[in-house]
Amino acid sequence: MREKLTIRDIELKDKHILMRVDFNVPMENGNITDDTRIRAALPTIKYALEQNAKVILMSHLGRPKGEPNPKYSLEPVAKRLGELLGKNVKFCHTAIGEQTEKIVEEMKPGDVVLLENTRFFPGERKNDPEFAKSLAKLGDIHVNDAFGTAHRAHASNVGVAKFLPSVAGFLMEKEIKMLSSVTYSPEKPYVVILGGVKVSDKIGVIENLLDKADKLLIGGAMMFTFFKAQGYKIGASKFEEDKLDLAREILDKVNKSGVELVLPVDAVCAREFKAETDKKVFDIREGIPEGWMGLDIGPKSIELFKSKLSGAKTVVWNGPMGVFEIEDFSIGTRAIAQSLTELSSALTVVGGGDSAAAITKFGFADKVSHVSTGGGASLEFLEGKELPGIASILEKKKKHPIIVAGNWKMNKTPSEARVFSRELLKELNTAGNAKVWVFPPFVSLVDVQEIFTGTSVTVGAQNVHQKPFGAFTGEVSVPMLTDLGITHVIIGHSERRHVFNETDFTINEKVKAALDGGMAVILCVGETFEERQAGKTFDVLKRQLTKDLEGVNLSDASKLTIAYEPVWAIGTGVVARPYQAQEAISYVREMLSKIYTPQLAEKIACLYGGSIKKSNCQELFLLPDVDGGLIGGASLKVDEFSEIYEIASKFC
Fold first, then answer.
1. Is the dihedral of CA 397, 398, 399, 402 positive or negative?
2. In which band, very low, low, confident or very high, does the pLDDT at 514 lie, cut at 50, 70 and 90?
């Protein structure tokens, strides 16, 4: 598994951190009976607060069926969290809407807000894009620290990550690290202990770990399905009649794999499924008599399992050995839990759900390497499945280099451009993987190109005429630029469209001329404030892309870069919120997929342009569909532009 970005990899100061946590705590009459899950989230929350972030927390609680239900309100959780943090936690009575946005907007660094139960909205479990976007409006960065829901593609953990950069919290990071260790690269000898009720629940784990494990120990009620499949008498013990053939297949696979399969040799049985009842130990080979049901592994099995654990370097345990909730039938589960604590040199990982509940009940949770907070999530991870809540978290390095493009516009005289370029070259650590493009005025192209020759910095032009030559006073052609060694050109910048009245037809002619001349084109598209207010953003982008790229063939399209620049954010100091930039650029890719192919659309770099600064570039560069920025004012300052480059280089 590729390494994921975590909360410690990003700048948090003054940012709105939208954090998905797992506060699905047990409640009784409105009171929290176990705050373990709240405590588990504290390290990530505290870290964000120490970094002067504004923390907005999201969670579900119970199963309220997509509508408000006071029984499942998170208000008691806000109170308990405040007690644990030693500070006020503001509770927001709804997860989305104007009231919520106002509360979030008024937050100061160090503030904490807990949103109401996300499952009060049907869009949460449906992963509805509109609900996810409404949540995304509240944040700059999404932090996913809810491993317990990682196997579910819901709006608050997966949907939001389509609109905001998503990174892992400390709890999520540890879960990924520990479970990866036992799933992909376990140190040997490696022992897997499986229990619980159903063979069908564990078949995926068994099949995925067969080529990795040395020993497979099976207990719990699922052992009786295996015994029945082998012809042993199991009395009234529970088993899966429709899974007997599956059990035989597993036994055959295990035998062929060379993994040592260890089944219990005796079982603690009772006539009734209850506490303080008659119990008796039966040898499995002799069979369990009619009227008796197996409820725990027996003393000989405990000793057998202990001996098989001896010398293990990696152990993963998922599923209890018996009905541990009843004291008389908890001995096997307790013994396995204690045995793990005695393997001082081994990595010991306990799967979530009942296994986690059992080891916590017996007081051994802090004596093993890791106890997973997710039952179904840990099981699916061990099966080798890709969990949507993890897949949506950004990887340490983006697939493509981030492009940091500086558009100087009509700034800097030739002498100023020379001085600036030399200073910039000294400041830039061009050993990084980010790309640097600079676009000086025409009068400085030759000098700037000469200074950056032999470096990784690309020098481009801000505009070009569509004709190769002719009576066009004041214009510059493609052959003139290429003769200077200029390979890149910006076309369709909003100022060319709205100040110089260039039409889509003109821009299309320029694009084709530049591509035909072998140049790489940065095509700018974007809507005005009035067009956005009227809900026409997508209409504008569709028109511009369709008309500007008309007649541009597939082979030439590979030389394109698209820069989305909302006109209302250029030179105004106003920057599109991350969700707005992502939504627009995602649509750009969608259009490119239709105009060309999905494969090519993925390869075409898409930039955001509009009041990018070092204070906001991080969350923009980390957006799923953003490959960099077309930077105006900040590109005219050596320190700021070089710092933006350094930030970009961290993520590619």
1. negative
2. very high
**Given the residues 493, 502, 509, 619, the one annotated as active site:** 493
Three-state SS for 626?
A: coil
Computed over every residue of the chain, the mean pLDDT equals 94
Lowest mean pLDDT among 86-90, 257-261, 543-547: 257-261
Domains and CATH numbers, the chain: 7-172 (3.40.50.1260), 186-386 (3.40.50.1260), 403-649 (3.20.20.70)
Which phi and psi angles does 463 have, rounded to 5°? Answer: -170, 170
CA distance linking residue 229 with residue 284, whole number of Å: 13
Maximum Cα–Cα distance across the chain:
106
Residue 477 CA to residue 578 CA, distance in Å, equals 37
pLDDT digits (tens, 9 = 90+) for 376-385: 899 899 999 9
Structure tokens at 360: 């916590």
Amino acid at 372: S
> Above pLDDT 90, what percent of the chain?
87
Q: How much of the chain is helix, strand and coil, in % rounded to 5?
A: 45, 15, 40
Is the pLDDT reported for residue 1 higher than 70?
A: no
Phi, psi of 612 (to 5 degrees): -75, 135
Rounded to an integer, what distance in angstroms lies between the CA atom of residue 413 and that of residue 651?
A: 34
Q: Is 311 left (phi over 0), alpha (psi -120 to 50) or beta?
A: left
The answer to whether residue 435 scores a pLDDT higher than 90 is: yes
Half-sphere exposure of residue 264: CA atoms within 13 angstroms, side-chain side: 38
| 565 belongs to the catalytic site | yes
CB 200, CB 176: distance < 8 Å = no
Give which of 332, 347, 339, 344 is closest to 364, Cα–Cα: 339
Predicted local distance difference test score (pLDDT) of residue 227: 95
- What are the residues facing 549 on neighbouring strands? none
Q: How far apart are CA 365 and CA 348, in angstroms?
A: 11
Indicate if the pLDDT at residue 513 is higher than 70: yes
Q: Which of 565, 583, 619, 640 is catalytic?
A: 565
Q: What's the first-to-final CA gap in the chain, in angstroms? A: 17
Annotated active-site residue 493? The verdict is yes
In 10 A of CB 108, how many CB atoms?
A: 8
CA distance 146 to 124: 15
